[in-house]
């Protein structure tokens, strides 16, 4: 099963609606679970490293028995076809219960997460909010499934 783990709730209506729509479309091909973790407090009152480490502590319980893909602007950039091939290869060979896509909170990721990362991917060199990153990732997961099923995906 694929899980998208994100720090921070989805709050914006059009993102929530888009997320629901993509989960519905993807559901034709596979089950994707969206796990929204709470924020770690007031950004202005907690040192950045401590904040990121608190985020990591919440994520940590989802890491065992999983192939962990951390989304980060410094990760590998792939085309949709390359991403589809990678995803298909991971699903067929990793032998783990879950494929996790991990989206950081407002300050990004704790360095600790990279110790558990099997792959680091970039959706773009640009930085996105966790909400936009979730929606973009879901669109790509839908596109991947279309590609892997030899269906049209440009529209």
Automatic annotation (TrEMBL):
Q: What is catalysed by this protein? A: pseudouridine(1915) in 23S rRNA + S-adenosyl-L-methionine = N(3)-methylpseudouridine(1915) in 23S rRNA + S-adenosyl-L-homocysteine + H(+)
**Record-level Gene Ontology MF annotations:** rRNA (pseudouridine-N3-)-methyltransferase activity
Q: Identify the GO cellular component terms for this protein.
A: cytoplasm
Listed EC numbers: 2.1.1.177
Extract the signal peptide range: none
What keywords appear on the UniProt entry? Cytoplasm, Methyltransferase, rRNA processing, S-adenosyl-L-methionine, Transferase
Query: Methyltransferase as a keyword?
Result: yes
What's a Pfam family in this record?
A: SPOUT_MTase
Query: Please, which domain of life does this record's source organism belong to?
Result: Bacteria
Q: Does the keyword Mitochondrion apply?
A: no
Entry binding sites for S-adenosyl-L-methionine: 71, 104, 123-128
Show the CDD domains listed in the entry.
RlmH-like
Tell me the compartments it is located in. Cytoplasm
InterPro entries in alphabetical order? Alpha/beta_knot_MTases, RlmH-like, tRNA_m1G_MTases_N
State the similarity comment.
Belongs to the RNA methyltransferase RlmH family.
What is its quaternary makeup?
Homodimer.
Q: Which PANTHER family match?
A: METHYLTRANSFERASE (PTHR33603), RIBOSOMAL RNA LARGE SUBUNIT METHYLTRANSFERASE H (PTHR33603:SF1)
Protein name in the entry: Ribosomal RNA large subunit methyltransferase H
- Protein species of origin: Defluviitoga tunisiensis
Gene from which this protein is expressed? rlmH
């Amino acid at each position: 099963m694929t899980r998208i783990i994100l720090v921070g709730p989805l709050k914006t209506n059009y993102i929530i609606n888009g997320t629901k729509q993509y989960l519905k479309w993807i559901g034709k091909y596979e089950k994707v679970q969206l796990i929204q973790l709470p924020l770690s407090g007031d950004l202005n009152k907690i040192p950045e490293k401590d904040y990121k480490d608190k985020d990591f502590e919440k994520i940590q319980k989802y890491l065992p028995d999983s192939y962990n893909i951390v989304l980060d602007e410094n990760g590998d950039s792939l085309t949709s076809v390359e991403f589809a091939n990678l995803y298909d290869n991971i699903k067929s060979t990793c032998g783990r219960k879950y494929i996790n896509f991990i989206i950081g909170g407002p300050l990004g990721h704790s360095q600790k997460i990279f110790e558990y990362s099997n792959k680091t991917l970039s959706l773009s060199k640009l930085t996105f909010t966790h909400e936009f990153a979730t929606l973009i990732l879901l669109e790509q997961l839908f596109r991947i499934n279309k590609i892997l099923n030899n269906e049209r995906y440009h529209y």
